[in-house]
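User: Sequence for beta-glucosidase below. Tokens please.
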Amino acid sequence: MTHASTPFPDGFLWGASTAGHQIEGNNVNSDWWQREHSGTAGIKEPSLDACDSYHRWQEDMDLLAELGFTDYRFGIEWARIEPAPGHFSHAELAHYRRMVEGAIERGLRPMVTLHHFTVPRWFMERGGWTADGAVDLFARYVEATAPVIGTGVRHVCTINEPNMIAITATVLKGGDIQWGPVGTPTPDEETSRAVIAAHHAAMNAVKNIDPGIQAGWTVANLVYQSLPGAEEVTAAYQYPREDVFIEAARGDDFLGVQAYSRNKVGPDGPVLAPDDAERTLTDWEYYPPAIGHALRHAAEIVGDVPLIVTENGIATDDDSRRIDYYTGALDSVAAALEDGIDVRGYLAWSALDNYEWGSYKPTFGLIAVDPVTFARTPKPSAAWLGGFGRTRELPRATG
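Assistant: Structure tokens for beta-glucosidase:
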């Protein structure tokens, strides 16, 4: 096999992604901080200082720019901006504005995520997404972010992986945030409706801040592949877990596509990967083409809405295997582009080894972080992947 290349389309986003709670540290007013310190099942360790990126964001951006990336997706934390109901912190808004300006100064186009799994503790205590007035409260928060996103921010993600929020709501109602090795629970219908409504309200709020901002949300694509004879079962299983959220993006400026592995579905539902299948540190099947399948499926559902890969990567402690994974993943992205799918960007998960919602063990990062000194060490994969930002070409396997 040899590799040719596919040029990036004009304006193609090339970057890496992070989330506020996973890298900032000491997000003490959030619901997740409370879970981490309350003995909730499935949380092996608390986030604590995380990567201390709240204080070290300049270094993170310096490294990404030096490596060749042109875009950086990062989150702003609702729990910091509105730590108590109706109290908006001018200091935190100014902090996140400095991050936006810092990215631009370094030649990085900022993509800002407004909600990445965490909410203020007070919001969860009043009932979370399904409480009366929750959608309006989220819209009020989005309106308050105008000083952060109002100038110089081209892309805004309203809510990250709403389908995972709704699935987690189902699990939390059972008192446990874990689910089994095969398949996922059915998303809580009330939560699904609420986050879709919150997204639409947030889209309006963003457009009121600046109609020129390109806004959308990001959906976890679990790449359901039907075994022979299970097509109807697969479609019925997939719809509430994924497709209803993709449909909600019709009319948006873009849809964020996020995928890591695949899930096979038989006549009786999801089936385990074979025992001899290679698995990652998250116990997912090693399957680099997942993102290409996700792009094609999303395009079929969402129509002419542009797609951006807002997360894609692998949890591994073997960085050469990370490069292998990205090689296969990018090959599938390039193939989708060549087939006419409107893909506007690719952002890897993650810029840093970070807190993966209960554990630091799954290392997705292009950059290693010492847990004591917080020293950043780019891995070979970081230079390899960042280099495509300079060549403006994607690898494409042939032969």
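The chain has a mean pLDDT of 95.
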